């Protein structure tokens, strides 16, 4: 049986293909129907048929043995699914993989940078409501976080751990540090001995506007104004303000006081705690966030700390003042 000179009058998978003259077996048609396709005809050579997808209506070329023995897939439906997953995350699938792996593609992210991604990971991230992280932006953020701590990001860590990078201190010493520790300034320089634990710190109170919910955040940092910028995903929306910061002689002392203050509030006024589900999107934090009406109460606790009250010792600020 010959391949005809006649072409199918519509593009199939983006190209015009010749009709193959020959009978269509009933079992191929029924196999195609069972698997979600109409069998339109034979094409190209004795091995191929044209299927019409029941979901999207588009034609696709398949080998007969795939139709008969396997689960044929519609490339148009797959492409639409991937495009939709990318769109959900503000990204676009812009090209096939330059390395030729059909499981990968080149995506353009919301920030305008591009990167190679595995399609099914993109779809999984979209289904799970996760973002599509951009390495370029992530590294730029890590570099800025390091600069705020007097360190410089120089590249990959010596140790094989995705959470670490290599940094240079202002003294010239280089070492691996966990990205999360650098972000919070929890880093000791093994070269000159400067330590976050002994470095002066501050206890702060921030004010944020979540959608329909004003809140405050109590925490510690050696650099509250940097922390304020960094903790907000979209500062235009959350409009964070620093309400109060009190100096503490060391990072170690600050972390003890902060923990004790949270415990004090939890023990005396648990109603002030905002459930994490309400702030997890707009504010990057794992520690407690409180309702806005807790503001004056927490301010009073901070004033007591500034006046010498030690919340990590037992007792309330009133009887501790004695
Ligand atoms: Zn389809
Ligand atoms: Zn980017
Ligand atoms: Zn150093």
Following the backbone from N to C, one meets helices and strands in this order, namely: EEHEEEHHEEEHHEEEHEEHHEHEHH
- How many domains, as an integer? 4
Shape call: elongated
Mean pLDDT: 90
Beta percentage is 25-35%
Helix content: 25-40%
Radius of gyration over C-alpha positions, nearest whole angstrom:
30 Å
Poorly predicted runs of 5 or more residues: none
Spatial strand order of the main sheet: 14-12-13-15
Structural class: alpha+beta
Please describe what this structure looks like.
There is one protein chain. By secondary structure, this protein is α+β, with helices and mostly antiparallel strands. It folds into four domains: about 5-75, no CATH class; about 80-125, no CATH class; about 135-185; about 200-320, no CATH class. It is about 30% helix and about 25% strand. It contains eleven helices and 15 strands. The strands form five sheets. It has a four-stranded antiparallel beta sheet with strand order 14-12-13-15. Strands 3-4-5 form a three-stranded antiparallel beta sheet. Helix 3 (about 75-90) packs across helix 4. The longest helix has 18 residues, at about 250-270. The mean pLDDT is about 90. One zinc ion binds near residues 111, 113, 134, 136 and 137.
């Amino acid at each position: 049986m010959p391949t005809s000179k006649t072409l199918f009058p519509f593009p199939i998978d983006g190209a015009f293909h010749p009709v193959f003259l020959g009978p269509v077996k009933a079992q191929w048609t029924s196999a195609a129907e069972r698997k979600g396709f109409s069998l339109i005809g034979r094409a190209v050579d004795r091995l191929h048929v044209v299927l019409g997808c029941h979901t999207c209506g588009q034609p696709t070329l398949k080998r007969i043995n795939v139709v008969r023995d396997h689960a044929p897939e519609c490339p148009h439906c797959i492409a639409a699914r991937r495009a939709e997953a990318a769109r959900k995350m503000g990204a676009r699938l812009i090209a096939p993989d330059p390395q030729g792996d059909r499981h990968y593609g080149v995506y353009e992210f919301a920030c305008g940078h591009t990167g190679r991604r595995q399609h099914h990971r993109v779809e999984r991230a979209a289904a799970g409501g996760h973002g599509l992280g951009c390495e370029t932006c992530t590294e730029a953020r890590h570099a800025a976080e390091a600069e705020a701590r007097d360190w410089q990001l120089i590249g990959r860590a010596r140790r094989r751990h995705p959470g670490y990078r290599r940094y240079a201190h202002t003294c010239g010493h280089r070492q691996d540090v966990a990205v999360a520790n650098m972000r919070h300034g929890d880093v000791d320089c093994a070269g000159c001995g400067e330590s976050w634990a002994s470095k002066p710190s501050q206890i702060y109170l921030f004010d944020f506007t979540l959608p329909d919910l004003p809140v405050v955040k109590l925490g510690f940092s050696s650099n509250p104004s940097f922390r304020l910028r960094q903790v907000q995903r979209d500062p235009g929306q959350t409009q964070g303000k620093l309400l109060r910061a009190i100096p503490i002689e060391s990072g170690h002392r600050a972390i003890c006081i902060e923990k004790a203050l949270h415990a004090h509030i939890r023990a005396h006024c648990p109603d002030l705690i905002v459930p994490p589900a309400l702030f997890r999107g707009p504010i990057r934090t794992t520690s407690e966030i409180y309702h806005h009406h807790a503001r004056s109460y927490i301010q009073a606790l901070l004033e007591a700390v500034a006046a010498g009250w030690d919340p990590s010792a037992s007792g309330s600020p009133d009887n501790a003042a004695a």
